[in-house]
Structure to design on (206 residues):
C-alpha cells in the first residue's frame, strides 16, 4: 500500500496524497450536509410551522384530533 | 414545478452517487489498509464491521435529508417494489449507486498498489485469494 502522507518517514506518494484528498473531501461533504440538515427548522416544531411547502400554502393547516373544536348540543 | 422536481431528484441521485463513492472507497479501503498494515497477522473482523458501520452512519446523517440515504440498490429496489419510491427515482438511485460503487473502487485502485488491492478481505486468504 502506498504510504500515507500522515507518516512522512515512510515517504510521500501520489496515492497518499489522493487518500488525503478523499479524506478531506469526505470531511467537507459530511460537515456541509449535516450543517444544511441541522439548519432546517423541524417539521413538527412550532418554529418550523412557518415554512410549509409551497404546494400546501394555499390550504389550511390540518388540525390534529385533539385540537378540533368540539360542538356541544344543548 | 416540474423543474423543481427534476432538480430535486437529480440532487438526490448525485447524493447517492457520492455516498456510494465514499462508502466503497473508505469501507474497502479500511480493509486494504488494515491488511497492509498488519502484514501476516490477522485482523479482527470487528475492525471491518466497525469501519463499515461508521461509514454508513456518517453518510446516512449526511444525505439522509436529501435522498433517504439508501446507499444500497437492494434498499432502493425494496422501497420501489413496496410503492414507497417512484420508478423514475428508483432507476436514478440504482444507476447512481452502481456507478458510484465502480468509481469508488477505481479511486481505491488508484491509491493502493496491486498487492494490497488484491489482498481480498483477509478473513479467508486460503479460500478466496482474489487476484491470483
Amino acid at each position: 500500500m502506498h504510504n500515507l502522507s500522515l507518516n512522512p518517514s515512510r515517504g510521500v506518494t501520489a496515492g497518499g496524497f489522493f487518500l488525503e484528498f478523499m479524506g478531506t473531501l469526505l470531511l467537507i461533504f459530511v460537515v456541509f450536509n449535516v450543517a444544511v440538515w441541522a439548519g432546517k427548522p423541524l417539521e413538527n416544531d412550532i418554529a418550523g410551522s412557518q415554512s410549509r411547502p409551497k404546494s400546501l400554502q394555499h390550504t389550511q393547516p390540518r388540525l390534529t384530533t385533539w385540537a378540533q373544536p368540539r360542538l356541544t348540543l344543548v | 414545478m416540474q423543474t423543481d422536481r427534476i432538480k430535486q431528484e437529480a440532487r438526490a441521485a448525485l447524493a447517492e452517487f457520492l455516498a456510494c463513492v465514499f462508502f466503497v472507497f473508505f469501507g474497502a479501503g479500511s480493509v486494504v489498509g488494515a491488511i497492509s498494515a498488519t502484514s501476516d497477522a490477522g485482523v479482527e473482523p470487528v475492525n471491518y464491521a466497525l469501519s463499515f458501520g461508521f461509514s454508513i452512519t456518517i453518510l446516512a446523517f449526511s444525505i439522509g435529508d436529501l435522498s433517504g440515504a439508501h446507499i444500497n440498490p437492494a434498499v432502493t429496489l425494496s422501497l420501489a417494489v413496496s410503492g414507497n419510491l417512484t420508478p423514475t427515482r428508483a432507476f436514478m438511485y440504482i444507476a447512481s449507486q452502481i456507478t458510484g460503487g465502480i468509481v469508488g473502487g477505481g479511486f481505491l485502485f488508484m491509491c493502493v498498489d496491486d498487492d494490497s488491492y488484491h489482498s481480498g478481505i483477509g478473513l479467508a486468504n486460503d479460500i478466496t485469494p482474489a487476484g491470483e
Observations:
- Chain B is about 70% helix and 0% strand.
- Chain B has one domain: 2-117.
- The two ends of chain B are 54 Å apart (CA to CA).
- The CA atoms of residues 113 and 125 of chain B lie 18 Å apart.
